[in-house]
Each structure stands twice: as C-alpha cells, then as structure tokens.
Amino acid sequence: MAALNDAQKASRDQFQKQSARYGKSHILANVEDVAALLDGVSFPAGARALDVATGGGHTALYLAGRGLSVTASDITPAMLENTAKLAAERGLSIETVLHEAERFPYQDAAFDVVTCRVAAHHFSDPRQFVAEAVRVLKPGGYLMVIDGSVPDGEPEAEEWLHQVEKLRDPSHGRFIAPAVWARWVRESGLELVECATTPFKQPDLEWYFQTAATSEENRARVMALVESAPESVRRAFRLAVEDGKVVWWWPRLGLLARKP
Which GO annotations describe the biological process of this protein (predicted)? Predict the structure, then answer.
C-alpha cells in the first residue's frame, strides 16, 4: 500500500481503535438496504465482487452468501481481521486485501460489481474512488454506493451536519448530496440506475458518540450545536428529543449505476 495522506491515516487510526464495535451486533449488520438495492441485479456464474472499505464486512458477507467470489478491502488491518473471522464463522470464503479507497491494486475490468457501504464520507477523494471503481468494473458491471448524505439544496443543513460529524469523529470527511454523486457517476461514463435517499433514524446521539469514542470536549460542542440548531436543520433531519435522547433522521443514499 502506498504512503497514506493525512485523511487516510486518520481513518485508518480511528477504525483500528474502534474495529471491535463493528461486528455482528452492529447496526450495519442488517443488510436489508444492500439486498433491496441489488434486488433486480442478476450476476453471471463465477461473478467477482469488490467491497471497498468493508468495515465489519457485512456487505462482503452478503455478496458471498449470494454465491459471488468476494474481495473485501479496507485501509484498516483490524477491520479485515474481524471480517475474515466473521466469514469463517459463517462458513464463507472471502479474500481480504489492505488498500486505500482512492487507488486499487487490481487490473482493469476485473470485477462484476463494486460496493461501498457507509464509508465514502471518510474518503479523502470520493470522486477518485468512483474513477477507480469504473476502471476495475467489467462492461455490464455495477457500482453500488450506500452512505449518509445531505438534502440537495440545503446548504445550511449540510454545513451543520458537517460540523457535528467532524466533532463527533475527526476522521469524517464530508457527506455528499445525491445530485453531486449522480453527476460524478454520469461524468465517469456510468449509466445511473438509481440514486435516492431514504430516511434512516439514528437511534441515540449517545450511542453515536460511543461508536466514535468522541471526546468529552467534542461531545459538549456537539450538544451546543444541537441546542442552537436552526429551523432548516430541525426540518431537514427531523432533529428531536425522544425519551430524553437526541435523535435525528439521516438521509441515507442508495446509488446503483451500470457500466455500459
């Protein structure tokens, strides 16, 4: 793996520390969103899949369960170790490869599908990730991206969420609006199949803090942002307090594109 830039190092170090939280009990272990997005896609016999920034490996294991030959990649060694263990527990065979999301060590047209789930907001250059995904896809192959997002045309809400996420987890990069993702995909030469957001409830801000090991100082700063959030933010994210817990609804992007 090439020398990492500062953003990549921050992501690697953050998830190396927090990798144990991303196992089979994590909220992302529920892969119904992946199944729904790939529901209409049929893969040829012997199809190969690349899951980028695999994290807990849940998407990779779903694809392996569908009979694909899966390569799970990540920038964090501990994540790959945990993914391999979880695969073994389920009797599934996957390959794990350590590399960054902006440069892949694979030949052109090597995969039938490239997936990335709830990770692109950490990438130092998500547009370069798209370019690399296109390069390694076979003609007729698919790119699937699921990630947190922000509403199109809501700059105040976007900036507020960026501040919150950066305080909660300094390795956070930026959530990207659906219109921007769609433009990048089209400009890369892919055909857009689906690009939409669905509301996904974040159950509790305290849980979110624990997941990222947020410092007490930054927790206080986030709470100040919550208390002073403008109406556009409260409307866009349905920010509220329920049973004494701060909750909000994340716009979750589901993107599927096909290489002609």
Answer: methylation
> What are the C-alpha distances in Å from 174 to residues 118, 149, 186, 192, 219?
12, 9, 21, 22, 19
pTM recorded for the entire structure: 0.89
3-state helix, strand, coil in the chain (%, to 5): 45, 25, 35
Which band of pLDDT confidence, cut at 50, 70 and 90, is reported for residue 25?
very low
Do the Cβ atoms of 222 and 166 come closer than 8 Å?
no
Cβ contact 70:51 at 8 Å: yes
Helix segments in the chain, DSSP class H: 6-18, 32-37, 58-65, 77-89, 126-136, 155-168, 178-187, 205-212, 216-227, 231-237
Express each pLDDT in 126-152 by its tens digit: 999 999 999 999 999 999 999 999 999
**Residue 133: both structure tokens together:** 């995904």
CATH architecture of 6-152+171-201+251-258: 3-Layer(aba) Sandwich (3.40)
Residue labelled with tokens 């349905």: 238
Alpha carbons 170 and 193: distance in angstroms, whole number: 33
Query: Would you give the DSSP letter of residue 93?
Result: -
Cβ contacts of 84 within 8 Å, gap of 6 or more: 57, 94, 96
